[in-house]
């Protein structure tokens, strides 16, 4: 009887409970969308990321961090951002107390990536950090360490590694449809009008220069196309407007990879260039444009063509990264990937400072 009574009691509770909404249980609920705070509201945040965050399924724009008070009402109105989710650089650490925000996306001048990524990590927020990850290897390591210590995810904004045509190139590094790679040529740059001579992208102090801005694209591309890490580099800088640029305006860099593979690369603020050609044992393929926000396509020596992805690159990138956080899986572009590029960038600057001396990459 005792058993039967306790069974009825328990099943009664279960019956009553089955009529309750799932949220009545104290089971932690998985959020359907993660909240993103954009840190730095310049060109890329304003024109590209905030609009892309209107297209995402697994994350949304919920907060801003800015040092420009005049931008606040405009962003609040446009994106319905409450006062409680607006921060400046001095109080950004208090974002720790805001459950609305799960992720801080660092979209600042390159020399500020490290300090603000670390503030975000210390506040217990996942960190998305724009490319280039930071100024040098030790800054990258400090960001990785802060994210590990605070058990938050770190991903770097290499949008192309989320882009389907580029993902085919990445797969080809293993499947080698044109045979073993012999050599690569990759370049990315644009004519920077440099109308504001004080803009940080022209000067070294905050991490300006063509190499940090555009050079990481051909560098990342020859790394993902080969699936290999370079063993040495030789680099030079060139200037068409030495009166304006204190950072590099043009950088040429030649990489040596294992198996005798070589890559000739160029980045520039003086001309519009955007391509990668990969010469292989049984033919070649070309990615052109290599890194535009849309239209990336591939054609091969056999007539094969891969048409451009029709979606929004940045929305896909942010949804992939939000899902990695929700599912506790490894992100597509972890901090270590940003670090690998910066290790080479450090060697590139070192070589250029010594007139193109060959620098081994340890
Ligand atoms: P930007 O100059 O337009 O914006 C930078 C923002 O940082 C501005 O709003 C500025 O007010 C703010 N800021 C805060 N402190 C500052 C300081 N001390 N000095 C100067 N500005 C300060 O630059 P952007 O083009 O938006 O680039 C920002 C980051 O995004 C860079 O790391 C860049 O490499 C990256 N980016 C990535 C892509 C991509 O395709 N993944 C494209 C563009 C830019």
Task: Explain this structure.
With 362 residues, the chain is of the alpha/beta class. The protein is 33% helix and 21% strand. The protein contains nine helices and 15 strands. It has helices spanning 2-18, 43-52, 72-79, 113-122, 137-149, 164-175, 210-226, 313-326, 335-353; strands at residues 34-39, 59-65, 86-87, 103-106, 126-129, 154-156, 181-189, 232-238, 250-256, 262-268, 273-280, 283-287, 298-300, 305-306, 359-360. Helix 4 runs parallel beside helix 5, helix 5 (137-149) runs antiparallel to helix 9 and helix 7 packs across helix 9. It is globular. The N and C termini lie far apart (76 Å). The site of nicotinamide-adenine-dinucleotide has 19 residues, from helix 2.
Write the layout of secondary structure elements.
Blueprint: H1 2-18, E1 34-39, H2 43-52, E2 59-65, H3 72-79, E3 86-87, E4 103-106, H4 113-122, E5 126-129, H5 137-149, E6 154-156, H6 164-175, E7 181-189, H7 210-226, E8 232-238, E9 250-256, E10 262-268, E11 273-280, E12 283-287, E13 298-300, E14 305-306, H8 313-326, H9 335-353, E15 359-360
Parallel strand pairs: 1-2, 1-4, 2-3, 4-5, 5-6, 7-10
Antiparallel strand pairs: 7-11, 8-9, 8-15, 9-10, 11-12, 12-13, 13-14
Summarize the structure.
This protein is of the alpha/beta class and about 350 residues long. About 35% of the residues lie in helices and about 20% in strands.
Which key terms come to mind for this protein?
9 helices; globular; 362 residues; nine-stranded mixed beta sheet; 33% helix; alpha/beta; disordered N terminus; six-stranded parallel beta sheet; binds nicotinamide-adenine-dinucleotide
């Amino acid at each position: 009887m005792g058993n039967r009574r306790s069974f009825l009691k328990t099943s009664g509770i279960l019956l009553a409970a089955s009529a309750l909404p799932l949220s009545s249980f104290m089971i932690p609920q998985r959020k359907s969308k993660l909240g993103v705070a954009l840190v730095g509201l310049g060109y890329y945040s304003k024109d590209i990321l905030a609009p892309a965050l209107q297209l995402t399924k697994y994350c949304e724009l919920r907060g801003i961090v800015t040092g420009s008070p005049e931008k606040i009402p405009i962003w609040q109105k446009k994106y319905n951002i409450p006062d409680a989710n607006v921060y400046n650089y001095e109080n950004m650490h208090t974002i720790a107390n805001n459950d609305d925000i799960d992720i801080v996306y660092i979209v600042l001048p390159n020399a500020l990536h490290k300090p603000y990524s670390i503030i975000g990590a210390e506040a217990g927020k996942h960190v998305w950090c724009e490319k280039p990850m930071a100024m040098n290897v030790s800054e990258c390591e400090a960001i990785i360490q802060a994210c590990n210590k605070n058990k938050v995810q770190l991903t770097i904004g290499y949008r192309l590694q989320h882009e389907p045509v580029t993902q085919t190139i990445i797969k080809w590094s293993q499947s080698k449809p044109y045979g073993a790679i012999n050599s690569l040529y990759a370049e990315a740059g644009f004519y920077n009008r440099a109308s504001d001579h004080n803009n940080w992208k022209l000067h070294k102090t905050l991490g300006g220069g063509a190499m940090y801005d555009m050079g990481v694209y051909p560098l990342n591309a020859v790394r993902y196309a080969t699936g290999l890490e370079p063993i040495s580099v030789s680099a030079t800088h060139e200037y068409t407007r030495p009166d304006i640029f204190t950072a590099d305006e043009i950088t040429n860099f030649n990489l040596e990879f294992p198996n005798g593979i070589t890559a000739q690369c160029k980045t520039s603020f003086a001309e519009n260039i955007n391509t990668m050609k990969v010469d292989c044992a049984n033919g070649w393929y070309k990615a052109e444009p290599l890194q535009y926000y849309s239209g990336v396509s591939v054609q091969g020596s056999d007539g094969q063509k891969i048409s451009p992805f029709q979606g929004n690159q940045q929305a896909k990138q942010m949804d992939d990264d939000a899902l990695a956080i929700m599912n506790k899986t490894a992100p597509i572009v972890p901090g270590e990937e940003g670090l690998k590029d910066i290790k080479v960038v450090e060697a590139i600057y070192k070589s250029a400072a010594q007139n193109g001396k060959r620098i081994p990459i340890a």
